[in-house]
Design brief:
Length: about 170
């Protein structure tokens, strides 16, 4: 029998019940309803890679204009620069053919002669440094383009990149 001052539950039962109720609260769980926090997973498709070909065509055109200006400014290196120019013109033709082949779109026409005039240094050493720098920059562009292109384009870009490496060596 219970005495008038005691409860029906013992101390051990009371502590077990209190601990059992406190445990879900401490774990931030609500055993009596749904959680107020909802986890939403959002998946997004990556955008398609940007085609580097139009940029490579534009850069090659610009470097051809700079080589033309360098030939006009440095007559002593004209033969060497003319050989480099003919290589770069072949690269431009191959790039334009690839653009036409893959997209059916011809590349935009080259700007008029009035727009194509650029200034180059007058010192022959600086002119060769400029041509070498252009070859180095283009080589990096073609190497970067190798990461997101088709196998056919990879072969084209690698060939042009190797030729640019030889231009860098020749102008050093």
């Amino acid at each position: 029998m219970n005495s008038p001052g005691t409860s029906r539950f013992g101390r051990r039962t009371f502590l077990l019940a209190a601990g059992g109720a406190a445990l879900p609260l401490a774990a931030a769980c609500n055993p009596f309803g749904s959680s107020t926090r909802a986890t939403t997973t959002v998946t997004a498709d990556a955008p398609p890679p940007v085609d580097a070909l139009p940029n490579l065509i534009a850069t090659t055109r610009f470097h051809l204009v700079r080589i033309d200006a360098a030939i006009a400014a440095d007559k002593t290196a004209a033969k060497q620069l003319t050989d480099i120019r003919s290589d770069r013109a072949e690269h431009l033709k191959a790039l334009e053919d690839e653009l036409t082949r893959t997209s059916g779109v011809t590349s935009p026409a080259a700007p008029s002669d009035a727009v194509q005039r650029v200034e180059v240094p007058q010192d022959p050493v600086d002119i060769m440094a400029l041509v070498r720098s252009d070859a180095a920059n283009d080589q990096l562009l073609f190497n970067d383009a190798l990461l997101t292109c088709t196998p056919f384009r990879a072969a084209l870009y690698a060939t042009i990149s190797a030729c640019l490496a030889s231009h860098r060596a020749v102008t050093a």
